[in-house]
Amino acid sequence: MPVNAPNDNLDVLAPSFNLKNIDDEMVSLDNAKGLNGTVIVFICNHCPYVKAIASRLKKDADELLEHSINTIAIMSNDVINYPDDSFDNMKIFSDKYKFNFPYLYDETQEVAKNYNAVCTPDFFGFDKDLKLKYRGRIDSGVMNANQNSNIDYIQLIISLVILLIIFIGFQTYNYFKIQDIKNSSLSFFDIIQDDQNVLISLEKLIDDDNIFSILSKLKLIQQNNENKNFSYSNELYKELLASSNLDDLYKSAIAANASYTMINASYEDNTNNYLNDISIYINNINDELDSYFSIKKELEYLLIVTEIDLNKSEYSNSKALDKYNEIFNSSLISASIKERVKKIHEFQLYK
């Protein structure tokens, strides 16, 4: 399933609630809603993604308040499993980031289930009539009911790391002709500054046998993903991974990025045509490299869940449960991967 929160069921009414605030007062949706709109965000104290946007959340909430749009934060995690998310720590977290809006404790997790919240942070934007108008991330922008954001923080980080590693690493390859590198360099950087003709112009470089061919393919993949032309991105991923100039580290990084991207593309295009290629990409990941064992296991789980969703099969008693148990019983899987997989597992069980 997608790593992103789904952005569907727009125009549904916000489910009501009455929860305890960090000031120990009970707060209801009717009392806390804004005159012109309401933003409800599910967060928690320990999540690194929440910490990364906490200051931005405070700033945006201040600006929205000037337009009579109120912000409400809700914490729904199990504090037994996540003691950092306790009610006392919620108070500390709110003070640290100077929240000027309610931070409510959903002790039974019923409110999170009613809102179908599946990750943190998970943003819900409601109009003055409490009809849902936006669902997603803090920076996803306005979407309609048939669109999902296909860009994830993890994918963005991986993409940037890939570009940096390839750019630096391939500079050391001394078998490239110096003059060819100079000529290709001028062409590449001239091209990426010309947004109108970038796709056509980059096609001229992708057949060259140097670093700029690799960078051109990555730039083309980025452009085609933004244009939702995933089938062409998929072909470019295949060409990159077939290159004899890539060692295991570069190949594993590209294969992981390709897997995350094409899993999201499967949901965007509502097709299982990419599943075989995704399986091949996952097999290209060398799980003996640092951190890639966890990534590979997560992707194997995501691929199984994607196939279940697209085929509208039952999650219960499926091989996804075996993979889920394998991940949680392994001491080699990182805690962050386990947390993401757990949220997906819980969403599949409750949906």
Query: How many DSSP-defined strands?
Result: 7
**Number of separate structural domains:** 2
Poorly predicted parts: 1-5, 140-152, 172-206
- How many helical stretches? 14
Q: Which structural class should the secondary elements be placed in?
A: alpha/beta
Mean pLDDT: 79
Task: Describe what this molecule looks like in 3D.
By secondary structure, this protein is an alpha/beta fold. The chain folds into two domains: 18-136, Glutaredoxin (3-Layer(aba) Sandwich), CATH 3.40.30.10; 153-350. It is 52% helix and 10% strand. Strands 2-1-5-4-3-6-7 form a seven-stranded mixed beta sheet. Strand 1 (18-21) and strand 2 (26-28) form a beta hairpin. Helix 12 packs antiparallel against helix 13 and helix 13 (319-328) packs antiparallel against helix 14. The model is unreliable at 1-5, 140-152 and 172-206 (pLDDT under 50).
Task: Name the descriptors.
Glutaredoxin; 7 strands; 351 residues; 2 domains; alpha/beta; 14 helices
Fold topology:
Elements lengths: L17 E4 L4 E3 H4 L4 E6 L5 H18 L3 E7 L11 H10 L6 E3 L4 H6 L6 E6 L4 E5 L16 H19 L6 H15 L5 H5 L8 H16 L3 H12 L6 H22 L5 H9 L8 H19 L8 H10 L6 H16 L1
Parallel strand pairs: 3-4, 4-5
Antiparallel strand pairs: 1-2, 1-5, 3-6, 6-7
Helix pairs in contact: 5-8, 5-10, 6-8, 8-9, 9-10, 10-11, 10-12, 11-12, 12-13, 13-14
